[in-house]
Predict the 3D structure of the following.
Amino acid sequence: MIPYSVIDAHCDTLTMLEPGQHLLDCPKHYNVQKQSEYIRFLQVMDLWVDKGEHSVDARVDQYIDFYAQEVARTPGIQTILTRDDLVRYFTHPAPQNPAWLLGIEGGECVDASLERLQELFRCGVRLITLTWNTPNRISDTNVVQRPEGPGLTAYGREVVREMNRLGVIVDVSHISDAGFYDVLEISSKPIVASHSNARKLCGHSRNLTDDMFKALVQNGGVTGMNFCTEFLGGSEDLEQIVRHIEYFAALGGIKNIGMGSDFDGIDELPGGVKGTESLYRIFDRLLQLNYTDQQVDDIAWRNFYRVFSDVLPSAEE
């Protein structure tokens, strides 16, 4: 048993499976067997859509059905729908089976209407990344700005408010800088950047500037360290990930850092990182650097746990 509990806020394995492969034992960065080696492990299981490439509604419905089939075929898997589910999973005195929380990467999944957002909530979706790389009805992106002006649209503001009301976690990875600040202005709940690093260390627009991270700290949100070498600024080894953790921690954000691996959504991982089975090496390294057990637990799971427990609905709602 690997002696850590973990929340990983982003992986793309669900939509990267090949015919005949399943989340239990697929030969990917992530699978349930790897996840099961940890004391507790909550994986945000994202399905990816992009209106530039997909028939969005059909793809979303197809993969929600597929996710339900994977839940049914995976012995003991815990699905997180409510705050009560989350608290029960992480406070149970004995080690638990792995857990999943269903997310969608690409807010075009709710371009149709707020009623579509409500429908997806009823289907179990509990996190939405507001954009991928193609602008949608909610916002522009870190790649493309709208001609009529950057940031959230009027409809996008309605979506954020409705996500807050329902108990769906707002994820700002991939959004434009203007959109990021618009979300912070609108959201009544803490938000996440599920898989974004420090732009000061790697000047990619997918990463957070110092001011953005400080604003996230003020919001009480969390950013998850993305293992994509393009967003780390190098591929030598996991020290690249640790550099970004230490940088954000030095900005006063030790309570605002988590894991957002982007497993199976990226082509290259840093040396020494094979997949879910390697996450413990980051935590071991932080302990070697004299981070306390509490600080390592915060980064491994407690910080995202705090946000998720604040945002998710209670069982009675």
In short: The longest strand covers residues 38-48. The chain has eleven helices and nine strands.
